[in-house]
């Protein structure tokens, strides 16, 4: 099929206390399941390094442009599969796997403080939770000001909002890798359905300025 939808889903490499990063394990499970015949799914593992993210992400968004890029990361605090609504530009003080953080502590020097996904994560969450998946989803507006948030903001910026970020708990807390793979499949399929139903999603990008209190998270 020449008109297959191109979707890219990424997970992160191990870091800190996460000797195995459940995000990449979950993405590999999703790859086994696939997203159906009409979707050309590509997966890749992202280093937990600011500079590597800056180098890698433009290549993910190059032509032929994906319809959607979904980044998956682990959160030691999460007990649900958490859909992130927005990415943040500033506040990157935590050192990465190379003991580096951006001198400016921000993603894009002239970028807005916050960029929203064109997808309404509450809608995705409600639909998937209404199915009998056996995995609970929730929505967050704070992706943690580390590599997850940094990657999400960069992707939202490059992809004009056509990106999503999903935080998963560590393996076995409480979900298995298979559970997480099924949750990713359900969430991404619902996101694609929303993009298909509402062509307006392809025409605008919400750059909203948000300031909210940040809590230190054990997030990528």
TrEMBL record:
<keyword id="KW-0645">Protease</keyword>
<dbReference type="InterPro" id="IPR000816">
    <property type="entry name" value="Peptidase_C15"/>
</dbReference>
<dbReference type="GO" id="GO:0006508">
    <property type="term" value="P:proteolysis"/>
</dbReference>
<dbReference type="InterPro" id="IPR016125">
    <property type="entry name" value="Peptidase_C15-like"/>
</dbReference>
<dbReference type="GO" id="GO:0016920">
    <property type="term" value="F:pyroglutamyl-peptidase activity"/>
</dbReference>
<keyword id="KW-0788">Thiol protease</keyword>
<keyword id="KW-0963">Cytoplasm</keyword>
<comment type="subunit">
    <text>Monomer.</text>
</comment>
<dbReference type="InterPro" id="IPR036440">
    <property type="entry name" value="Peptidase_C15-like_sf"/>
</dbReference>
<protein>
    <recommendedName>
        <fullName>Pyroglutamyl-peptidase 1</fullName>
        <ecNumber>3.4.19.3</ecNumber>
    </recommendedName>
</protein>
<comment type="similarity">
    <text>Belongs to the peptidase C15 family.</text>
</comment>
<dbReference type="GO" id="GO:0005829">
    <property type="term" value="C:cytosol"/>
</dbReference>
<comment type="function">
    <text>Removes 5-oxoproline from various penultimate amino acid residues except L-proline.</text>
</comment>
<keyword id="KW-0378">Hydrolase</keyword>
<dbReference type="Pfam" id="PF01470">
    <property type="entry name" value="Peptidase_C15"/>
</dbReference>
């Amino acid at each position: 099929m020449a008109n297959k939808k191109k979707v890219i889903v990424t997970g992160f490499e191990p870091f800190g206390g996460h000797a195995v990063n459940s995000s990449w394990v979950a993405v590999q499970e999703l790859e086994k399941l696939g997203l159906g015949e009409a979707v050309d799914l590509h997966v890749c593992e992202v280093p937990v390094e600011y500079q590597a993210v800056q180098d890698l992400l433009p290549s993910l968004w190059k032509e032929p442009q994906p319809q959607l890029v979904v980044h998956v990361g682990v959160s030691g605090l999460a007990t649900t599969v958490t859909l992130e609504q927005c990415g943040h530009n500033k506040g990157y003080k935590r050192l990465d796997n190379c003991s580096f953080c951006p001198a400016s502590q921000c993603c894009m020097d002239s970028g807005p403080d916050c960029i929203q996904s064109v997808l309404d994560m509450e809608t995705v969450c409600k639909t998937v939770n209404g199915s009998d998946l056996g995995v609970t989803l929730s929505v967050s507006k704070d992706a943690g000001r580390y590599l997850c948030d940094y990657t999400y903001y960069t992707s939202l910026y490059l992809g004009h909002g056509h990106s999503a970020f999903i935080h998963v708990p560590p393996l076995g807390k409480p979900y298995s890798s298979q559970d997480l793979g099924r949750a990713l499949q359900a969430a991404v399929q619902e996101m694609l359905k929303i993009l298909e139903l509402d062509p307006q999603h392809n025409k605008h990008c919400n750059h909203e300025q948000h300031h909210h209190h940040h809590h230190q998270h054990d997030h990528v």
